[in-house]
Design goal:
Blueprint lengths: L2 E5 L9 H8 L10 E4 L8 E4 L8 H5 L26 H5 L6 E3 L4 E3 L5 H4 L6 H5 L5 E5 H7 L4 E7 L2 E10 L14
Parallel strand pairs: 1-8
Antiparallel strand pairs: 1-6, 2-3, 4-5, 7-8
């Protein structure tokens, strides 16, 4: 059974431990491949970790003219290969989520690759290991899609295109006011 990254951004406290852990992951050259975004700057302190969505059909890989972005047999979309990447930025333009970044000095695209050196051996990604609030979890795909105590999203509509992802987002309870009280 495949595992997926599950994110419940309502639990995020903005500590950025996921970013620091990512920087320390072996092979990441001290570049965080996890980002933490402010959800409503100026209105709220709410934040959300933003990794690669690991699309089932990744536009980044499909747009790469040199085949530098590989997809593993378990569906993990890897960062660009150092040997092949020409830093053309096609992947950054193609990604509907705006995830891949290009390191201008190294002429290399980088993004979350689920710490493949860890996950391929059954260990969780570094961001999961260091998250103090369980905002980010690495769980069995079927469990996340059917047994979570909240609605989840792993299919996204962009105009006429539906994109399915292996990063699953826990959706907020729409009956909850922004202060956490349930409507009657």
């Amino acid at each position: 059974m495949a595992k997926v990254l599950y994110i419940d951004f309502e639990r995020c406290i903005g500590c950025r431990a996921c970013m620091i852990g990512c920087e320390e992951c072996s092979g990441h050259d001290h570049l965080s491949r996890m980002f933490v975004d402010e959800l409503n700057p100026g209105e709220s302190v709410a934040t959300s970790p933003t990794p690669c969505m690991h699309c089932v059909t990744p536009a980044c890989a499909e747009s790469c003219p040199v085949g530098a972005i590989q997809v593993t047999s378990d569906g993990t979309v890897l960062s660009a290969s150092h040997e092949k990447c020409i830093a053309c930025k096609n992947c950054t333009y193609a990604c509907p989520f705006g995830i891949p970044k290009v390191d201008e000095q190294r002429n290399l695209m980088y993004k979350c690759d689920l710490c493949y050196d860890r996950t391929s051996k059954g260990r969780p990604p570094m961001c999961v290991s260091v998250c103090p609030t369980d905002t980010i979890l690495f769980l069995e795909e079927e469990e996340v899609k059917t047994k979570m105590n909240k609605e989840v999203q792993y299919k996204w509509n962009f105009y006429d295109t539906e994109i399915e992802t292996r990063t699953v987002i826990g959706l907020p309870d729409t009956r909850t006011h922004r202060f956490g009280f349930h409507e009657s």
